[in-house]
Amino acid sequence: DDIDAFILQLEGKKHWRVYKPLNDDEVLPLKSSGDLDKNVLNGIKPCIDVVLEAGDLLYMPRGYIHQGTTLDDAHSLHLTVSCYQQNTWGDLFKILLPKAVDYAMKTNVKFRQGLPLGHLNHFGLIHSTKKLSMKKRAKFHSECHRLLDELLRESVPIQMDNSVDMMAQRFMHDALPPMLTAEEQLTTIQEQGERWNSDFNRVSNVVELEPDTRVRLLRRHCLRVAEQDTNEGGEDDDEDNIVAYYTTDNARSYHDRPLSTLGVDKETLPALEMLFTTYPQFLSIDSLPLATVEDKIAFISTLYEKGLVRTQFELQNSDEEGDESDTEDEDGLMLKRQKVQNESSDDDDDDDEDDDDEDEE
Predict the structure, then answer these.
(1) In degrees to the nearest 10, what's the CA dihedral of 278, 283, 288, 294?
(2) Residues 65, 109: one domain?
(3) Residue 259 burial by CB count (10 A; 0-12/13-18/19+): exposed, middle or buried?
(4) What is the pLDDT of residue 243?
(5) Residues 6+ apart with CB under 8 A from 180
(6) Rounded to whole angstroms, how far apart are CA atoms 346 and 278?
């Protein structure tokens, strides 16, 4: 396969044999192969020969051959998690080098100079073995190397960040939306958001972000700020070209729609940088580098409504005391709060066990 794979056995058992690539051409393949003839593996010893049981995890690197067989006396249910697809140096260079050449042609006159006259008389299939062409071919190669060195030295570094951003966009487009923990549900718009209460015919669960509310990005890679390409001609306006891509609106169907975006201007860019650089720490809304408190709250509110930030603690809603709330919603919240409390207690127990182990040593 052209991916790294993790096999998690959920139920029952399954017999797995894993083989190293059969030759150098199959090492780190660019595309997945079809099913192999079993006879190809005759006489070859697998590097892994194991029966997975419920709870076991098997890792198979890209390009390794694998055979999975269900046992006669047991059913099998497993989950395959694939990753690291099309994430190679070559994939980056496919994006980076064309951008570097375009930039070099715009900014360096050497790349706009014409090719030597007569080069067609010395290059091509017919001329590749002619001894009379070798000297001129060597001179042509030498000039190519000089320009490529200049390209790598001057243009590639300038285009590297934007090229990596484009790789990141592709990764984010393939990604599922973040799966929230119980604590994250209680501290994001998923549970803290306003909802219609049909019993009382009004909006309930209204919460307010305050200047001292502490927030952070939901995930490090749920949001990415990038500069859009402007290859349509005309003058570039860096401010108009900057956008933020995010994954919280991604569908669970593969590539169901394009990545969602937010516009970014020069005023909000420093605030976004601060959220990225302080992650995973929480910061107060009031500490953001924006002009007014209203600007700070409006900025975070936009991210909050998109599910891109969470609060450190569950926000208090402004429903009047004594009102009866939706029973099902309230029961669901209580269960999640209890789950968060239990998870916190489990973490404390683990810490206590670690302390006990250290004392015994």
Answers:
(1) 150
(2) no
(3) middle
(4) 93
(5) 188, 190, 218
(6) 27
- Distance CA(197)–CA(183), nearest Å, equals 23
pLDDT score, position 331? 58
- Which residues does 36 contact at the CB level (< 8 Å), separation at least 6? 65
- Clarify whether residues 142 and 157 are in a common domain: yes
pLDDT score of 334 more than 80: no
Distance in angstroms (rounded) separating the CA atoms of residues 189 and 178: 13
DSSP at 43: T
Domain count, the chain: 3
Residues 188 and 67 in one domain: no
Long-range contacts of 241-246 (CB under 8 A, 24+ apart): 242/269, 244/272, 245/168, 245/169, 245/172, 246/172, 246/222, 246/306, 246/308
Strand ranges for 54-124 from DSSP E: 57-60, 65-69, 76-83
Reduce the DSSP state of residue 163 to 3 states and report it. helix
Residue 120's contacts (CB-CB under 8 Å, 6 or more residues apart) are: none
**12 class by beta-carbon count within 10 Å (0-12 exposed, 13-18 middle, 19+ buried):** middle
**Residue 205 belongs to what domain range?**
178-231+239-311
Q: Tell me: pLDDT of 42 over 70.
A: yes
pLDDT in tens, 114-171: 999 888 888 888 877 777 678 888 899 999 999 999 999 999 999 999 999 999 999 9
Q: For position 118, what pLDDT does the model report?
A: 86
